[in-house]
Write a structure and sequence with these properties.
The chain is of the alpha/beta class. It contains 3 helices and 7 strands; from the N terminus they run E-H-H-E-E-E-E-H-E-E. It is 36% helix and 25% strand. The strands form 2 sheets. Strands 5-4-3-7-6 form a 5-stranded mixed sheet. Strands 1-2 form a two-stranded parallel sheet. The protein is elongated and about 70 Å long. One of its GO terms (biological process) is regulation of DNA-templated transcription elongation.
Length: 171
């Protein structure tokens, strides 16, 4: 059996605690679905499988107990996150500058590349291939820049120069 590592000994991750209102709503919906739909269903399956007798070779019991632990861990994590997040709404004074929640279109002339993505919090990245983290080198380099600005993004592969083509916000 694995020991649970005390949270106080785990390394602290330097992630921003910001989230868009859409991202916050998705996390709340995930929490509610896990707590009100999935957890009761899995709990019923565990109860049923346990009632069959010998649990040592009961695959239904072991699988659903594992799934129940996963659900409980995710629910605990979501409860903690939901309390800690700071929801960032669009404000008109953000117009024209790259800030949290912005859709940014950029171009690299040298490599012939063009990208469009949204700058969001870490928890919003899952399942969204056109989102980047607020904590990424690209996002940090783009913050507070305007259309037409050239930005140098430092990576392990070298420095890349990007020009900002367009900045939009969901309102």
């Amino acid at each position: 059996m694995r020991r649970k590592i005390p949270e106080s000994t785990l390394p602290k991750l330097n992630r921003s605690q910001m989230i868009t209102s859409e991202g916050f709503q998705k996390l709340k919906e995930e929490h509610d679905h896990l707590w009100r739909v999935e957890r009761p269903d899995v709990t019923a399956k565990v109860t049923w499988a346990a009632s069959l007798g010998d649990r040592s070779e009961n695959a239904d019991y072991h699988y659903n107990k594992k799934r129940l632990r996963e659900i409980d861990n995710r629910v605990r994590y979501l409860r903690k996150c939901i309390d800690d997040f700071k929801i960032i709404e669009y404000h008109p004074n953000q117009a024209g500058k790259v800030n949290f929640g912005a859709w940014v279109e950029i171009k690299n002339e040298e490599k012939g590349l063009q990208n469009r993505f949204r700058i969001v919090g870490y928890e919003e990245l899952i399942g969204n291939k056109d989102y980047i983290s607020m904590d990424s080198p690209m996002a940090k380099a783009l913050l507070d820049k305007t259309v037409g600005d050239e930005v140098i993004v430092k990576t392990k592969m070298g420095d890349f120069v990007w020009e900002i083509l367009k900045i939009e916000y969901q309102k």
